[in-house]
Amino acid sequence: MGNKDALISINDLREGMIVAKEIVVNNNVLVVKGTRITQSIIKKLRDVYLENALIVDGEEIIKQNKKLDYNKELKEVRKTLRNFAYQLENMFEKIKLNGKTDINDLRNFSQRIIDELISPRMIVKNIIMEGSKEDCIFKHSVNVSLLSLFLGKWLRFSGEELNLLLYTAILHDFGKTKINNKSICRPGQLSSIDMENIKNHPVIAYNLVKDIAYLSKSVKYGIVMHHERLDGSGYPLGLKDDEIHKFAKIIAIADTFDDIISNREKEKDVNPFKALEIIKGYSLGKLDYNYCNIFIEGIINYYFGENVVLNNNKVCKIINIDINNLSQPLLQCDEDFIDFRKHKELKIKGFVVN
Question: Which CATH architecture best describes the domain 5-62?
Answer without folding.
Answer: Alpha-Beta Complex (3.90)
